[in-house]
Design goal:
Elements lengths: L2 H4 L4 H8 E2 L31 E5 L10 E6 L3 E4 L1 E2 L10 E2 L2 E8 L8 E6 L7 H10 L4 E11 L2 E10 L8 E8 L6 E5 L4 H17 L1 E2 L1
Antiparallel strand pairs: 1-5, 2-3, 3-13, 4-7, 6-7, 7-8, 8-12, 9-10, 10-11, 11-12
Length: 214
């Protein structure tokens, strides 16, 4: 199976296939740049803010990260170690970023994950980190970028479309990125399909709105 096709599998199956060391997780070949009048990333349409279920990222939490943010109630975080010996280890990497944490929505009633990826280079701007991340998915297209804030931290955000032979129809995904002294952090929301993605948006927005540098 080609790498681009594997990326379209249900997130739980994908994670089990390519990742090890958990502590407690075809489209166009190049995404658009979001310039020349492309629409800005869409926001959640009036969804109520979710109840908070704790804070992630600090020392002693399920995932120790260069940032902290609040979790939606019921979402279950776990640290991820990409196993270099695995034949499919590259699926735990996207662009120059490596998956370090995933937060499972299934206990809260949805199929999908909020995933945290760690990039390289403390001087990498958020927009550049996102462009690199999206370019690492061969099934991504129609990317729309905008400058944003995550908490009070300068950020960039992208909404894009993922297509693939294993999907019934294209689906929406999105991510935001911030720069940290340890390199850029990308927080990504996928989902089984666009409906699941929309239902999980309040948890994504909570993470973005409450983010602080660690």
């Amino acid at each position: 199976m080609m790498r681009g096709a594997i990326r379209t599998l249900v997130p739980a199956v994908l994670t089990a296939a390519v990742l090890a060391g958990c502590s407690s997780s075809g489209g166009d070949t190049a995404a658009d740049t979001g310039k020349n009048g492309e629409s800005a990333p869409a926001k959640s349409a009036g969804s109520a803010a979710p109840a908070k279920g704790g804070t992630l990222g600090a020392a002693g939490s399920a995932c120790e990260l260069p940032v902290t943010f609040d979790l939606a109630a019921g979402w279950k975080p776990q640290a991820v170690t990409v196993e270099p010996a695995s034949d499919l280890a590259a699926l735990g990497e996207q662009g120059s970023a490596t998956m370090v944490c995933e937060i499972d929505a299934k206990p809260a009633g949805n199929i999908g994950y909020l995933r945290v990826w760690q990039g390289k280079g403390p001087d990498t701007p958020p927009r550049a980190a996102l462009e690199d991340f999206v370019a690492g998915d061969p099934n991504a297209s129609k990317a729309a970028y905008e400058e944003a804030e995550a908490g009070a931290v300068p950020a960039a955000e992208v909404v894009y479309t993922v297509s693939g032979e294993l999907l019934d129809e294209p689906k929406t995904e999105r991510a935001f990125a911030v720069s940290t002294p340890k390199g850029p952090v990308v927080v990504h929301l996928g989902g089984l399909d666009s409906q699941e993605h929309e239902e999980m948006l309040p948890a994504y927005e909570l993470a973005k709105d409450t983010l602080k540098l660690g």
